Amino acid sequence: MESVRLSVNINKIALIRNSRGANLPDLTQIARDCEAFGAQGITVHPRPDERHVRFDDLPLLQATVRTEFNIEGNPDPRFLREVMQVKPHQATLVPDGPQALTSDQGWDTAKHHDFLVDVVAQLQSVGTRVSIFVDAEERFVEGAKRVGADRIEFYTGHYAKVFPSNPIEAVKKHVHCAKLAVELGLGINAGHDLNLKNLSFYKDQVQGLMEVSIGHALVCDALYYGLQNTIQMYLRQLN
Ligand SMILES: CC(=O)[C@@H](O)[C@H](O)COP(=O)(O)O
Ligand SMILES: NCC(=O)COP(=O)(O)O
């Protein structure tokens, strides 16, 4: 069985860089190093205020990343234009509003059906695989299939909150919806607040999981263990 791929989200590295205005740390070097340390993908999530990764980072990262480049975000006109120019391997559509502190829910794929059909088709027309960020609810998974997505990404923020007190309850809907996604022929990614404590349980329970994207906890762990060790520690959870 293939192991689950680790895509490192480097938004928080960009946040540090932006706090001083110069190019330290160098985001493209970080992406290169993450890959050299074992990351199987690089994820970024440009937001309208560009407080993390900026839109002008995207072409440089596309030229740098040798594994899989995944751009996440709300497909407003600017996001869609920039991502279609860059043509990453994967785009993950996330419904965050412009003021969102961080992602806190997935799409209502029925309510936004027509919009998503259009955006998914546009991105696929330039060769980009499209994943849709959803909560683990049957109706949202079915809706993702209906809009033509290639994959779903399960929002794992709620899982991460409940996991410490009740891991089985926390993962229940994900296990169920993953089976449905596999039946529907959708690939499965997952992310948000995954960490060294909750990752291996999630991976063991959720059959069909292909990829996780992890940023916040991984960057926090790297402050203590260093980036190379930390990436290896996350990879061990996935193998
Ligand atoms: C969709 C998702 O969960 C991630 O893209 C996350 O939102 C990134 O987090 P930050 O932008 O808060 O680092
Ligand atoms: N798609 C989730 C992601 O990229 C990272 O989320 P987090 O680990 O920063 O919470």
From TrEMBL:
3-amino-2-oxopropyl phosphate binds at N9, R20, D193, G215, H216. It is found in: Cytoplasm. Signal peptide: none annotated. One of its GO terms (cellular component) is cytosol. The active site is at H45 (proton acceptor), E72 (proton acceptor), H192 (proton donor). Homooctamer; tetramer of dimers. This is Pyridoxine 5'-phosphate synthase.
